Amino acid sequence: MSNPGKPAVVTTRWWWVRHAPVREDGGNIYGQTDIVCDTSDREVFEAVAKILPRNAVWYASNLMRTHQTAEAIWAAGFPKPTSMVKDAAFAEQHLGQWQGMNRAAFVASQPVGSSWFADIDVPAPGGESFMDLYRRISRAIERINVEEAGKDVDRRWSWRQHQGGRWPCAGRTARKGPRLRHRQCFGDAARSLRKRRPQQLAASDGQPAAVDRGCVAQRDASAGGA
Fold first, then answer.
1. How large is the average pLDDT for residues 154-182?
2. Strand-pair category, 207-220 with 152-157
3. SS3 for the chain, per residue?
4. What whole-number distance in Å separates Cα of residue 11 and Cα of residue 7?
5. Is 85 exposed, middle or buried, given 0-12, 13-18 or 19+ CB atoms closer than 10 A?
6. Is the pTM of the predicted complex or chain greater than 0.70?
């Protein structure tokens, strides 16, 4: 039974699709280097095309591997949307002077037990820390939660979660408070993927790419901005 005194709630669903595997990095750290991805596995993209909602608004980062992934999904049978926003706020972590360095040599040079590249609040020389990435993406998510309230948001994501990081939007999909409410959407990346085994799609650096619909942002319809 409805409660006339309770404000209506608008739900905005986020569908996160990892970009296709990068094969031509030469074993080097690439971060925001704009290199191509491998979209040759049509079976993978046909599966993705069946999962994604048909009425979603599409977002991608400014990096071409996310654009190529979207094009491959459309080529596999998903109706191409009229537009796709390319937003640099969703780009991978900028790894500064580490970009272009041999990945294995870099890891071997670090003390035993070191964090992935660096501790989360330590920026790469000339680049970002993981927390910089977290804050950048969180701001973009909050902005789009208002701009696209009540819609499905389909995002090509391109941060390297498969190398040990956490999802940058973990637990901060929308701002808490009287206007926006949220439930935690992402935890540890590996745990999240294990919970969604039927939706695992392709392998990349030993971890699967995936479609993830774990992120639901809610806001009062009376708050404006819908």
1. 39
2. unpaired
3. CCCCCCCCEEEEEEEEEECCCCCCCCCECCCCCCCCCCCCCHHHHHHHHHHCCCCCEEEECCCHHHHHHHHHHHHCCCCCCCCEEECHHHCCCCCHHHCCCEHHHHHHHCCCCCCCCCCCCCCCCCCCCHHHHHHHHHHHHHHHHHHCCCCEEEEEECCCHHHCCECCCCCCCCCCCCCEEECCCCCEHHHHHHHCHHHEEEEECCEEEEEEEEEEEEEEHHHCCC
4. 13
5. middle
6. yes
Q: What whole-number distance in Å separates Cα of residue 167 and Cα of residue 5?
A: 37
CA distance 37 to 108: 26
Domain residue ranges in the chain = 9-223
Task: Give the per-residue pLDDT at 10.
Answer: 80
pLDDT digits (tens, 9 = 90+) for 22-77: 999 999 999 999 999 999 999 999 999 999 999 999 999 999 999 999 999 999 99
Class of domain 9-223: alpha beta
Name the residue with tokens 């040079």. 109
d(CA 185, CA 215): 4
User: Which pLDDT score is estimated for 150?
Assistant: 86
